[in-house]
Design a protein that fits this description.
- It is elongated, with a radius of gyration of 57 Å.
- Helix 1 runs antiparallel to helix 2.
- The protein contains 5 helices and no strands.
- With 219 residues, the protein is mainly alpha-helical.
- 75% of the residues lie in helices and 0% in strands.
- The protein has a domain at 19-125.
């Protein structure tokens, strides 16, 4: 039955611990060993004080010394274990840092690949090759020149002779300016320049013509 299901019997193999789990166990073990060593140091200090108070060679002195030597051996053992555990922790820290660096490097490479793929798709979709962009720039430059030429044509004035004399026009403009200045100084500047009204009839002539028209209508 087990063979049919693909099992050879026995419990399933446990998954290997992760680096984080191993590092946590090592830190716990190191802290435990350091606590034991501190406890032994406190006991050794007491035994050392007792030995100072006892006379060497006596039974009490030898008993305390024998107990102190046993604790020293135990402390040496803990020291060795602590050194090994700290070396292992250092190695595991280096491995963890290397693993994290590898993961960051892989993530960076993956991001770069995705970015390159996206850029290629955008370049292909937009046809952003060098030749097409240069052609587009040339076309836009030609269109701008044509637009400027059209604007120049559309801006030409109608009804203005091509052979007008600019000097005559400037002299006439100076005369208009002088006339306006003189009228302003006299305080009787008309609403329009006098040259505009040069062809208009005088007020007295208008009154005579109106009276003549009225006499004709009454006859």
């Amino acid at each position: 039955m087990h063979r049919f299901l693909g099992s050879k019997g026995g419990a399933p193999k446990a998954a290997a611990p992760t680096l984080t789990e191993v590092s946590t166990q090592q830190a716990t073990r190191i802290e435990e060993l350091q606590g034991r060593i501190r406890k032994l140091d406190a006991e050794l200090v007491k035994y050392r004080e007792q030995m100072k108070k006892s006379r060497p060679g006596t039974a009490s002195y030898n008993s305390v010394k024998r107990r102190a030597m046993q604790l020293m051996k135990q402390r040496k053992m803990y020291d060795t274990q602590l050194g090994q555990m700290m070396d292992m922790e250092f190695n595991m820290s280096n491995i963890t840092m290397a693993q994290e660096q590898m993961e960051m490097t892989k993530a960076s490479v993956d991001a770069m690949r995705v970015t390159a793929k996206t850029m290629k798709q955008a370049q292909k979709a937009g046809k952003m090759d060098i030749a097409s962009i240069e052609n587009l720039q040339d076309e836009l430059s030609d269109m701008m020149e044509d637009a400027a030429e059209i604007q120049e044509i559309m801006g030409q004035s109608y009804g203005v002779p091509d052979d007008f004399d600019e000097d005559d026009m400037m002299a006439e403009l100076d005369m208009i300016e002088d006339e306006i200045i003189q009228e302003d100084l006299m305080g009787s500047a008309p609403d329009v320049p006098s040259y505009v009204n040069s062809g208009a009839p005088e007020p007295e002539a208008e009154a005579d013509d109106l009276a003549a028209l009225e006499s004709q209508m009454t006859v």
